[in-house]
Amino acid sequence: MAEKKATTKKAAEVKETAAKKTTTTKKAAAVKVNKAAVAVNAENIGFKAGDVYQALAAAEKALTVKEIAKAAKISEEETLLGLGWLFKEGKLLSAEDNKVVLA
Asked: In the structure, how many helices (H) and strands (E) does the chain have?
């Protein structure tokens, strides 16, 4: 009878340890997501808009969001923020096939 209690107790400890590992993993994943977050403020978005503008000016043709991000060496999220800024200022036009070109 003492053996069964020890086995049950050991099984409970294993489950508890597994639960702690799962919780730790979830917390670590959440931290990684926060590190990838883009700082959303007027200064940062303005700089990203400048990066997008320079990439489009250098290309001298319509580009997709992915192509702009690669040329400007910024993330796609930052590219979208910069594009929004430039569209609002009237400096961009939509082209066919989801491409953007300078106005």
From this structure: 4, 2
